[in-house]
């Protein structure tokens, strides 16, 4: 198990940050919206990846203690979700105008 953790860490995958992003995603998909299941899965995945890869960068740039990172990961994950939701909606509007 430790080898797998080290392998993932080499790719920048931090499970606690991803878990915080997942909880942000669960908070997002619990509210009603007009996204399909596929789009909801995409938004949650983007939220998890945003939390995983941007949280360490934000901690470093803002000179925050590492234990604040989990709350920050939740917020960044939720922000990533909202961003991709807006992109999907704009794309759907663009697609519907083209027809």
Question: What's a concise summary of this model?
Answer:
The chain is an all-alpha fold.
Secondary structure layout plus pairing:
Blueprint: H1 2-10, H2 15-29, H3 37-62, H4 69-98
Helix pairs in contact: 2-3, 2-4, 3-4
Structure write-up:
- The chain has 99 residues and is an all-alpha fold.
- It has one domain.
- It has helices spanning 2-10, 15-29, 37-62, 69-98.
- Helix 2 crosses helix 4 (69-98).
- The longest helix has 30 residues, at 69-98.
- The radius of gyration is 15 Å and the shape is elongated.
- The N and C termini lie far apart (52 Å).
- The mean pLDDT is 81.
The count of β-strands is 0
Roughly what percent helix?
over 70%
Major pleated sheet: none
- Helix-and-strand structural type: mainly alpha
- Gross morphology is elongated
Residue-averaged pLDDT, rounded?
81
Multimeric state of these chains? single chain
**Distinct helical segment count:** 4
> N- to C-terminal separation?
52 Å
Spatial extent as radius of gyration: 15 Å
Total number of domains? 1
Low-confidence stretches: none
Strand content: under 5%
Order of helices and strands: HHHH
Can you tag this structure with a few keywords?
mainly alpha; 4 helices
């Amino acid at each position: 198990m430790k080898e797998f953790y080290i392998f993932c860490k080499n790719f920048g995958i931090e499970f606690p940050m991803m878990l915080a992003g997942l909880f942000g995603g669960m908070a997002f998909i619990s509210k009603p919206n007009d996204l399909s299941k596929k789009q909801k899965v995409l938004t949650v995945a983007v939220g998890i990846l945003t939390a995983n890869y941007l949280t360490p960068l934000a901690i470093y740039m803002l000179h925050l203690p590492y234990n604040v990172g989990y709350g920050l990961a939740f917020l960044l994950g939720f922000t990533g979700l909202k961003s991709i939701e807006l992109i999907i909606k704009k794309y759907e509007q663009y697609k519907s105008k083209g027809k």
